[in-house]
Amino acid sequence: MFDEPVRKRNMASLTPLIDVVFLLLIFFMLTTSFLKTQSLSVVTPSPSAEELPTDARVVEIWLMGDGTLRVDGTPVEAENLAEAVKAGIGGRKDMTVTILAESGSRTQVFVTAIEAARQAGARDVGTARVEKITP
Amino acid sequence: MIADFDEDPPRRQFETLIPLINVVFLLLIFFLLAGTMTPADNVAVNLPVGALSDDEREMPATLLVEADGFVWLGERVIDPKIAEQALKEYLADKGKERVAIKADAEASAEALLLLMEALRKVGVQQVTIVTERGR
Fold it and tell me: Are strands B36-37 and A32-33 parallel, antiparallel or unpaired?
């Protein structure tokens, strides 16, 4: 006689629990991001390009308006940029790399150039924008 | 014979829900552990791909450069050519030591450099360009 009600309690409704868990799941799915970002420190450029050093201890990377790259005037593919800059630096410790961005060049190329300069072992990386690079 | 079929099904219904709940719980735990919650930006930008990481963490001031070259300072959208005054106001309570720039990979390098020049005029010596980890 007393057994019956106890047995019925066993099956307490799971539906509210599932509702809450689903809501939590949707919340976390929408708010999480899996994008891994990293950061690249860059020294801000001075407003006039004339302040950049132009002597023999400088390797120049030109970002042309059509998306191509040049190191000291020689066209270079993006993959070989770090090697070309390294060849320009030639093992010296006091070299500066200057990145000149022609109007029309893109941020992606700019970031690639900065990284190549850093990987090549430049002491300083200077940046400047120019309307048109005249070799 | 016919009455026999009616008796079993009601109890079975609950049992089929349990694997579903298990999976949902697993998904929930996965999103909890694997995701990182970051405050959403005003606009989505396609970050440039990079290889180097300087591993800077807390960035109180983040500037966004959209693909069309316009800059977001918090809630304001401004042309980088005339950003100086707005930057001064924006950085007044955030400090000038840690400024991050999230620039779209397709944004012109000129807009990014104009923004960096304006930052230099305001007194920021170094900025951090946010990139996405490359392949």
Answer: antiparallel
